[in-house]
Each structure stands twice: as structure tokens, then as C-alpha cells.
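**User:**
If convenient, please work through this fold.
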Amino acid sequence: MEELLSAIGAHFDEAEGWIRIVDADWYADDLRVTLSVKMHDDDHPQLWEVECLGTVEELISSDGSEALLLTANSPRLYPYKAERFDIFFSKNECNPGELLGILTSICAKIFGNITYLQRFLNLKPDVNGIVSETSGKLGNFPKPVMEELVVKLKEYPIVLSVISTGNPKKWNGNEFKEYPSLKSFEIGKSYIIANSFSAERA
């Protein structure tokens, strides 16, 4: 992987180059993607094969990008790494649409994608769902989302109760275990979350 990142760091022109996923194959929990990397206008595209071992989530788009990022600090990792909290509420006098809008805007701010709300919210994310109730469980949220939500809702007619449920865990066939050290590999709209990554020139 370092060879690919070094090559991009040394030769990639963000104004003229692009990176695109052109193929993807699954092998059990492992994913292999082929990247087409054009460093600059005068260069022929290079093909690189990236092995993503222990993949837990992916979204692959054929759109090209001018950036590639491999990080252990992406907000996309919060569902797997951040401490989780059940948020219960009572005395809810919020407008359902406004409450749903607050939840949606917090997810958009943190993740850059409103679809993440469906993972955390109890019941469907619509105005007739949990946001319209006077009391109940709002959902189970990663710590960064919980913190933003608690601060924001102090201004509204709703009472919250927050309980930690610990770090996210995955069933391994015998027991629930915390996720291993994960990284996020991001290319434009595409991303792959996996345990380890390696790359070689095809």
C-alpha cells in the first residue's frame, strides 16, 4: 500500500490526474478492487490491485476522483469504533419535522451523508416515526453524534436520558467481540472499510 501512496504523492497531478475503481471482486470477507490511476495528462493510466482484508462495509462508485485517502480517523469508522449510547426521551413537545431535521443535519454534518441516520434511529426516519412520540427510545448513537444531539436539544422542549452501551461488537460465530483495528480507504464517493489494505501494480 505504501508503494501506491508514495507513487501518488510523488507523481500525481490533482489538476490533470484521476483515480477510478474499474473492477471489484469478493472473496468471503475480503475484497479486491482494481484502480485505474492516471497521474497526469501525458501519462497512460496505471492499474493497481488493492486487497482489502476483513472488509466490513463498502460503497463503490465508478466516478473518478482527484484524491485517495487511507485513514484510521474517518467519521465513517464511528459505527465500528466509537462508544455507543442509547438515547431515551420524554416530555417531547418538539415539532416532529423539526426534530427529524435536527437529527438529519447532525448526521450530514458528521458523516457527509444523511443515510447514516437509518443506522442509529429507532424505527424509520420519517415524521410519523419515533420523532412524533412523546416518549421512548430515540435510538442508539455513536458518541460524536450523541454529543452533538444532546447539546442541540437543550434548546428544545424535550427531556433526554443517555446510557452508554459500550463499544460496537460483532458476532464471530462464538461470541460478540469488538471490531479489530479498522481503516477507511476513500476515493471520491467510494469507500471501503476493512482491517488491512495492500496494493501492487497490476
